[in-house]
Design goal:
The structure holds two protein chains of two kinds. By secondary structure, chain A is of the alpha/beta class. Chain A is built from 16 helices and twelve strands. In chain A, α6 (125-135) crosses α7 (147-157), α6 (125-135) packs parallel to α8 and α7 packs across α8. The chains are: A alpha/beta, B alpha/beta.
Chain lengths: 365, 327
């Protein structure tokens, strides 16, 4: 933990920065409704996100399904097109410069949830990993290594030892855990600064998960790779993350040092998420009611207010912030050192003014 | 008498590469009002046990041992009796609720059908009962007219629970009932299941790979590895103070937030769970066991006593208990 904080102060800036990012998906309208003049509804999957990732840091991005965490990760990878906002890599905005984008795509790698789907079943392990090198036109390593040496080193770093034994294997000959290691090796072979991992262990068996998480931590410690880990599992965040960001309906509602966020959460939504983590005490405790929210209909005011236990329980009213909860959108305010949350009530209790919301999308009334 | 009692069950699947022993001698019993959790990783045989109990295993599969439902042997039941017992004696909630419902039938008809087929009521009575069931699982009765696509995943799973309760079964078997659901919805569904189980005094066999879920809802836990039960006992004790190294590893995979032992220290096991057709000799867990010693590859441990009401299949437990038991 301390080492991680050290890391932040040692270097000057974030390796990756996201500024006011918006991603929207157009809905579809049936023929009948279209003829009646109904416009398609847009899903605001990512709705004004600011995020910084520092060198060598593990940042966990948590939330329910539909909160936009995967969309955010995919947009960072360039797999979705943002409606507006900026992504900066080492301080430089990713524009349309092909050269910079190419460079970016080599140095930022993704690891998907399901390794079986991520690997081509008809390609040998060697081919799968070497493909990345070939796509990026890397024929020699920094010390003049051959392609074979680079592939072997990546496999071995991912814990597949001896690497040569797996060169000619096919994905179906490997276990789930080994396949995920191959996927990670495929990312490592390009010597990335950042790995974005989308639910990297949720398709794996429980006893195998820990080994993959150990591997990710080791890569961070040895190669100083920064990681953005998308997960629904706060227990996983507790085991590997330096910082945790909690997303709700397209926005980050709380972000801060992992220990602080997970043991002293500020935002009522984070508290609710922690409440549902199973525990040995039994299941008789209050849970947040209702279904995962709908990004096509984001509520007015604080987007969490219709489900917020502080609103329904009357605490917000007692603190005279209910009108703000229902009517004023807000951004993240620093309520403890390095620990930000977007909550009218908690800002009020801390004697801090609620932060201004991210600016509305240009040209969107 | 136990509602469900399984004695020395073995299930061997037929395959072109030879027999695949998926379950290798399992004893289980579930009493009235008791929830037994069965945990293990994919391929450990937990779902095979469910299929064997419901007699849903594919043809050519060899099943030996004894399965008693309220004292009646399930394995020798005639087809007619089996049909009658399924759903009214024992019902099941499967994992993929979204696929188990018929997409072109209203929810109400699907629930009512189970009731009328088992002649528990006439059509009108079945409709009334369906509405009551929906209310019981926390959905308004007007939802009877909905089609499955109009419901969310959690709501569909609630409908599946309503169907499982439709014929007042003695035991409900839940096979990964919440795995496909989102975290928040999962907690709601688990809470509902537990409430209903208590209210109706149901016996329940709860199967999942997620040990932390089982600890919340089960009275007792049985941990499976490579077709055998390796540890059993009261759930909180098994989870918090495991006696078998495999249980320790499994419970370590579900860290408690706030527990410093897990912070920046993911724990796992080297290697992978064995393929059922190729289980290591001796203790089947020994190649992955951090505590294995020279006897482990040769002796297949049975379930030794491991504390009050607890048993574990580990050679390390074998000697220790006699010392502890002596006052």
């Amino acid at each position: 933990m301390q080492a991680a904080e050290q890391r932040h102060t040692d270097r000057d800036g974030p390796v990756l920065e996201v500024r006011d990012l918006h991603v929207r998906f157009a809905g579809r309208v049936g023929l009948g409704q279209g003829l009646l003049g109904r416009k398609p509804v847009e899903a605001r999957a990512v709705d004004g996100v600011d995020l910084q990732l520092f060198p060598g840091e593990v940042l966990a991005l948590a939330g329910e399904s539909g909160c936009g965490k995967t969309t955010l990760a995919r947009t960072i990878m360039g797999l979705e097109r943002p409606r507006s906002g900026q992504i900066l890599f080492e301080g430089k905005p990713l524009g349309t410069s092909t050269k910079l984008l190419r460079e970016y795509r080599r140095r930022v790698q993704i690891v998907f949830q399901d390794p079986t789907a991520a690997l081509n079943p008809r390609q040998t392990i060697y081919e799968s990993i070497a493909e990345g090198l070939r796509v990026h036109g890397v024929t020699r390593g920094p010390q003049g290594e051959t392609e074979e040496q680079l592939v072997a080193r990546a496999l071995s770093r991912a814990g597949m030892r001896p690497p040569e034994r797996f060169f000619l294997s096919y994905p179906h000959e490997l276990s789930g855990g080994q396949r995920q290691r191959v996927v990670i090796a495929g990312a490592l072979v390009l010597d990335p600064e950042i790995i974005v991992a989308d639910e990297p262990v949720s398709s794996l068996d429980a006893s195998v998960r820990g080994e993959i998480l150990k591997l990710l931590l080791a890569l961070r410690n040895e190669l100083d790779i920064a990681m953005l880990v998308v997960t629904h599992d706060l227990g996983l965040a507790w085991t590997i993350a330096d910082r945790v960001a909690v997303m709700y309906l397209g926005r980050i509602v709380e972000i801060g040092p992992a220990e602080d966020v997970l043991t002293r959460p500020i935002h009522p939504y984070t508290k609710a998420l922690l409440e549902v983590v199973p525990e040995a005490g039994g299941i008789d405790r209050p849970f947040l009611a209702g279904e995962p929210p709908d990004p096509t209909r984001i509520p007015e005011g604080c987007r969490f207010n219709p489900r917020c236990p502080e609103v329904t329980g009357g605490t917000a009213e007692a603190a005279h912030v209910l009108d703000a909860c229902r009517g004023e959108d807000l951004g993240l305010a620093e309520l403890r050192p390095g620990h930000f949350a977007a909550c009218h009530l908690m800002s009020n209790l801390a004697g801090v003014r609620s932060a201004a919301p991210p600016p509305p999308l240009p040209g969107n009334g | 008498m136990s509602v469900l009692s399984v004695r020395d069950l073995t299930v061997t699947y037929h395959s072109q590469a030879g027999p695949v022993p998926a379950v290798r001698g399992v004893d289980l019993s579930v009493d009235k009002g008791e929830v037994l959790g069965l945990a293990g990783e994919s391929g450990c045989g937990k779902s095979t046990i469910v299929n064997a109990v419901l007699r849903l295993v594919p043809p050519k599969t060899k099943v030996t041992g004894e399965i008693l439902l309220n004292g009646e042997d399930v394995m020798t039941m005639k087809p007619g009796r089996l049909r009658a017992v399924r759903w009214s004696g024992m019902s099941v909630i499967f994992q993929g609720a979204m696929h188990a419902l018929n997409p072109v039938q209203r929810i109400g008809n699907q629930i009512a059908e189970t009731i009328t087929i088992h002649s528990q009521a006439d059509e009108k009575g079945a409709r009334v009962r369906s509405g009551a069931l929906l209310e019981q699982v926390g959905l308004p009765p007007r939802r009877l007219r909905d089609y499955p696509h109009e419901l969310s995943g959690g709501q569909k799973q609630r409908v599946m629970i309503a169907m499982a309760l439709a014929c007042n079964p003695d035991i409900v078997i839940a096979d990964e009932p919440t795995t496909a659901l989102d975290v928040m919805v999962q907690a709601q569904v688990l809470q509902l299941l537990k409430e209903l189980q208590r209210e109706l005094g149901l016996a329940m066999l709860f199967i999942t790979h997620d040990l932390s879920v089982l600890v919340e809802v089960c009275d007792r836990l049985a941990i499976m590895y490579a077709g055998k039960i390796v540890e059993e006992g009261p759930s909180v004790q098994v989870f918090q103070n495991p006696r078998h190294p495999y249980t320790s590893a499994l419970s370590g995979a579900f860290p408690q937030i706030g527990d410093r032992r897990f912070r920046m220290a993911p724990s796992g096991l080297p290697g992978d769970p064995p393929f059922p057709g190729n289980v290591p000799g001796g203790c089947s867990f020994h190649p992955r066991c951090p505590l294995a010693f020279d006897e482990c590859p040769t002796i297949d441990p049975e379930l030794y006593p491991a504390g009050i009401d607890r048993r574990a299949a580990c050679l390390l437990v074998r000697g220790s208990e006699r010392v502890e038991a002596a006052p």
